[in-house]
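Lab channel / #folding
Pinned by the channel admin:
"Please post every new chain as: sequence first, then the structure tokens as a reply. Keep commentary short and put observations after the output so the thread stays searchable."

First post following the new format, from NK:
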Amino acid sequence: MPIKEITNEFKLDDEIDVNDDDHKYKAKLTYSDGKMTLCLRAVDGKSKDNTIVREIEGDNLVQTATCNGVTAKTTFKKC
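Reply from TO:
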């Protein structure tokens, strides 16, 4: 898998088009109750919808990603 940089700019509550290699999504970023939520809705017929939620818990940033009924949680600790 090649390493590359992808940049997308969001305004809260606005839907934008996102292209990542050969995957296409409609993306919407929201903020509520201390959680930033990115909803990605697949529009290319081959990708899956997914949701990424980021929140601060104590000194940690917790990211929870859900796709197709599978959830992964990553905790980033403040150094």
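NK: Strands lie at 15-20, 23-32, 35-42, 50-57, 60-67, 70-77.
TO: also worth noting, The two ends are 28 Å apart (CA to CA).
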